Amino acid sequence: MYGAGSMCEEDRKELVVIQGLKKSFPVRFKGKKGWVRAVDGIRLSIFEGETVGLVGESGCGKSTVARLLLRLLDPDEGTLLFDSKDVLALKGGDLSRYRREVQLVFQDPYSSLNPRMAIGRAIEEPLLSHRLLGKKEARQRAKELLDFMGISPTHYFRYPHEFSGGQRQRIVIARALALNPRFLVADEPLSALDVSIQAQILHVLEEIKERFRITYLFISHDLAVVRHISDRVAVMYLGRIVELAETESLYQDPLHPYTRALLDAVPVSHPALRRKRTLIPGEVPSPLNPPTGCPFHPRCGLRMARCSRDAPALMEPHPGHEVACFVYGDLSIQTPMERRRP
Amino acid sequence: MNTEAGALLEIQDLEVVFHLEEGPLKAVDGAMLTVKTERVLGLVGESGCGKSVTAKSILRLVPQPPGEIVAGKAIFQGQDLLKIPRDRLRKEYRGKQISMIFQDPMTSLNPVFSVGDQLAEVFTTHRGMGKKEALEASAEILERVGIPSAHRRIRDYPHQFSGGMRQRVMIAMALACAPKFLIADEPTTALDVTIQAQILELMKELQREMRSAILLITHNLGVVAEMAHEVAVMYAGQIVESCPVEEFFDNPRHPYSIGLLRSFPGMVPKGERILSIPGSIPDMLNPPPGCRFHPRCQEAMPRCRRESPPDRMAGDNHHVRCWLHV
Hints:
By secondary structure, chain A is an alpha/beta fold. Chain A is built from 9 helices and 12 strands.
């Protein structure tokens, strides 16, 4: 399950299709009004049953993508399809149904549970508010979920402060599973946890995936964790996806200069592997005032004249391996948006 | 662990207690550590294991009350820092011979003073420089840690710097007096991976240049593999294993160390399953009897539940506290 391409092309059904998605936030900076372009035109398809990892550094827009997917935010532009339905047009009962099928697990298990609600009630609440089960059945289901997540059902009436961080994250995941979602967006689900607990929660997420065949979007800044859990990985930089490929292809043969730098920056796994690094200079520019052309060009060792003028779009130099960089060819011969594979 | 050649700092039998409403909490329970001259010691452990409290005890920065250093020594170049008068500690050691970098560069700088003023203070206090000279020295050291147009930037305030740049400022401040010993408490934890690589590279460079020893506290085994010469693993207030860094990665002995290495995604070879340590970190108000790790240990024996294991040698310079290795 760690390997990529475990499914045949023909069996793959697109569950989530994102096209040209954009979102800006208004800000005031030194008395001037401006816009932060958090998500700047991304395109991504997620197949049913797969895990897509979304990696990038802070401020690259990965959490905004999560919020847009959940429709906690509305995009400025672009389309979002779920199971071939236009999510942005959903209203009333249909929107409510969508929100049952798509669930979000947040980073911080300390703030994503209501401190004044017993954990059992927190888990059954979505079942009751969506009127899926009666009180008795909902309680039964909450207890089963607690048990499945390795928390004793007798803790049903306990409150979040009585649990450790790892246990709280289990409770948050149990709540997300209560509605039998088809798609789970996990936004840095391990970052607030200790190392030994991270591995536990990673196992829980893998087990759920095997058992319930849920599709994941796994958002993280931790490249090692993403490698372990994902079938494909998308790398974001300043609101754009700069590379998208099957996991091993991306880690072993990264194409985008940013992806290379990112992977090179990961600390070694053994002291014998210490080496002199080629560090990328500078820092991520402010999304308030992003560079022209390719967002990475001011820090890029391979930049050419046109990189500061034009923004490269994602193209596919190798089948299944997409990259947005002029080093790999020209925009004018870019493959059509709809085409994924030859 | 007697005084051996090249030891710059030795912590012996350190015990730190926090007097809380719920009762006494022993955050550090008999910790032993040796930092060698010009070497980097990686102190590894999860939150609440006592690694920061151990480090803060060296400079007596543990808030008192509720904290109290109840026993132990911190011998720095023959001098027990836990015994000398506070005044002397402040004038002769803190910031001069021993400096500290904290995890969060956002909160460890004072927001109402310019970065230059804060840096200059180190030079006026410890080097007896005048204000003008101190500001010049500040600009120079900022330039050394890689802050562009340093002469202009010394007039800026902390909020005008990014996280990575603030950490560079902290490093500049810590190294202003070319200390023999630097305590770095999770110096890159708040930073993105590309910035982390920049900061680690800078620390390595400066460590070689200034010939300082570093006590590097981290929960990230990758940072240890990258930086450390020696490793000490802390669990529930005790050092459970310490050894040279290659030995730690090749031949870890304590079940907790082994568990940590196997649960760290970056350490586990591709395709292999990441293993986790069952259970969670013990409640330090009520620590388990015997070996602190036994409730989570797959190899626990009856003896582990009753008696705390002693510190034993399991090879050259390899200390381990585990009944399996007695």
